[in-house]
Amino acid sequence: MKKHIVAISIVWFLFFAVAPVFSVTPHPPKSQKIERFTGRVTSVNMEDSVLVVQSMKADMTFDLKGARLKGYKTISDIKEGDRVTVQYVMHEGKATVRTLTKNRPYR
Q1: What are the sequence ranges of the domains in the chain?
Q2: CATH number at 35-102
Q3: Phi and psi dihedrals of 59, rounded to 5?
Q4: pLDDT tier at 26 (50, 70, 90 boundaries)?
Q5: What share of the chain is helix, strand, coil (3-state, %, to 5)?
Q6: How far apart are CA 48 and CA 103, in angstroms?
Q7: At CA 67, angle to CA 91 and CA 78, rounded to 5?
């Protein structure tokens, strides 16, 4: 009986305490749609974690806090002129980055 209680306690701990730690970026509520924007980085403000990306049609400003980076190790690796794809959600009038992917440069 004691072994069953210990096993159940371990499973409960792993499921409820450890599993949420592996989620880097929070999942958006079901009412929010993940959108995509591709363009060229025009400015990066590392102090405020703000990124400005320009496409052929528009410029957008994004909040980088909590973003998952692909092709970059840190935010400081992002350079002006890099071509990126941003997956983001709109929250309270602000575009919050979920995933920032570095693309190949134009030829």
Answers
A1: 35-102
A2: 2.40.50.140
A3: -110, 145
A4: low
A5: 20, 40, 40
A6: 24
A7: 120
